Amino acid sequence: MPGRLDDPAYARLLLNLEGILKQITVADAEVSVVRNSNAQHISSEVDAITSMLSDIKATTKSAHSALARVHAGERSWPQIVLWTVLLFVLPAAFVSALELVGSSSSGFADDCEGVSALTCFINASILVWVCAFVVRRKLLPSWWPRTHGALPAAKRDKSVGYAVKSLFRFVVLVLLLCLLPYWSFERGLRMGGGPVVPNANASGPLAALPITAVGAHDYCIGEHGIARRLWHSSKMFFMAIMCWELSFLPGSSWDVWAHHIGLILGVAISTDHRLREVLSGGVRVDAPTEAGESLDGFAYVLMLGTAFMFAKELLVLLFQHRKLSKTREQASDLLAAAVVHVLGQAAFYLVLPATYLFATLSAGHLPLRPSGAVLAALLFVLNVLEAYIFSITLKVMRIKRRKARAAAYLHPALGGGGSDGVREVSSGVSHAANAAPQAAEEGTMALHHSSLSTPLVAAEHRPR
User: Fold this and answer.
1) pLDDT in tens, 153-194
2) What is the DSSP string of 296-353?
3) Maximum CA pair distance of the chain?
4) Nearest to 246 by CA among 458, 450, 445
5) Tens digits of residue pLDDT in 183-241
6) Do 104 and 209 have their domain in common?
7) What is the gyration radius of the CA atoms in the chain, in angstroms?
8) CA 180, 123, 453, 299: dihedral to nearest 10 degrees?
9) Does 458 map to a domain?
10) Residues 296 and 420 in one domain
11) What percent of the chain has pLDDT above 90?
């Protein structure tokens, strides 16, 4: 089969690894003999050798398993379709379940949900865990049976992170696009269902109404209630996925932690109506306010950009699972990811939010202090961070391009036939055998990521 190591060569590799295991077993037996002797003065040396032999044995067994997985790997399209469909059905079932529950008696104060925000977050977190389990155990091994098994454990974890984030960012993108008709530069995110309470310093017929009178409208009924529940679900998905990623990959870079913690706090504040009133300067009523809808409109733009970056996550995931011999394709994946980064940052972190903020402040929908100052500072920090991340992305992309050009120069006729099979299976053994030093090497070159970017190459420094 093209691209696969022939059986005699595969058998020789297995035999060599088994020979190494036998030699390790013999050495371990010799060390045990020394340990059982009365030579107490060499106990520390024996302990050190025993520990090293144990590590070598574990690494060799891992290389043996990786070789077997890569050689036997076959892509099964029925399984791919099954697990992919399941992963899209699960979030859809979550949103549908919230619709079946309907609205609570408190109505707008509970984001038109029949359950509390805490219950929504807990269930969204459980949904993320289930999806991560399916991705880790079923989907990725089915999509890339030969390259996924060759990755070290740390890089397999990162690939799971890319896949899960791609899934939920795409789901949120669909939810937000459903809300697009409710967004505008003039009104923010206005989902209707009744009158909107003006700002505290504005005059209007609703300013003097009691809370009960203002709340006696159809904010949570029909399409208005569905829209508010979709908006609430999108925020819950984002908060759950950020919490999951930080706990699943605690070794993430500092900017990832800073961004995710900031996003989690932002979602919490925007979901709590009392805290949002303090920031927006709106009146205290259980109904939509002019300032509150303007804040939601600003958040909508940033969340839309974050969700749009699912394309970049997919490109990174594809890059990670390329064969090591496909340096040209790897460079193309990174170039495409960099283009998506530039488009996403320019549109959703710079042009649209800056224009929207200027329009809403000019119209008096939001006060200049504190809302205008806080949001302007947030945009500045986010764009500086994104520019820094893009510089790293560009640097690693250039490294991959140089490697691709060097490979083309040294092997101009190298194709995707048997050589790929040898490189692929050998890389599986090399990945497993070098898993420990790789962890240290990753720290120097792995790309950082934030809402609009991801570590573009956790797999950059693969053993050649």
Assistant:
1) 888 899 999 999 999 999 999 999 999 999 999 889 999 888
2) HHHHHHHHHHHHHTHHHHHHHHHHHTS-TT-HHHHHHHHHHHHHHHHHHIIIIIIIHH
3) 96
4) 450
5) 999 889 999 888 888 875 444 444 444 444 444 468 888 899 899 999 999 999 999 99
6) yes
7) 27
8) 40
9) no
10) yes
11) 30
Q: How many CA atoms lie within 13 A of 404 on its CB side?
A: 18
- The two three-digit tokens of residue 308, written as one number: 């749009």
- Please provide residue 387's backbone torsions phi and psi, each rounded to the nearest 5 degrees: -65, -40
DSSP bridge pairs for 197: 289
Least confident stretch, 49-63, 160-174, 253-267, 415-429? 415-429
Residues spanned by the domain of 15: 1-72
- Kindly state whether residues 26 and 103 are assigned to the same domain: no
What's the domain count of the chain?
Answer: 2
Q: Give the SS3 label for residue 248.
A: helix
User: Which among 400, 419, 428, 242 has a CA at the least distance from the CA of 332?
Assistant: 400
In a domain, 310, yes or no: yes
Which of 55, 72, 89 is the last residue before a domain boundary?
72
Pair 113, 256 in one domain:
yes
Place of tokens 């008696």: 105
Residues 36 and 83 in one domain: no
pLDDT digits (tens, 9 = 90+) for 99-138: 888 776 566 777 788 888 889 999 999 999 999 999 999 9
Do 302 and 235 belong together in one domain?
yes
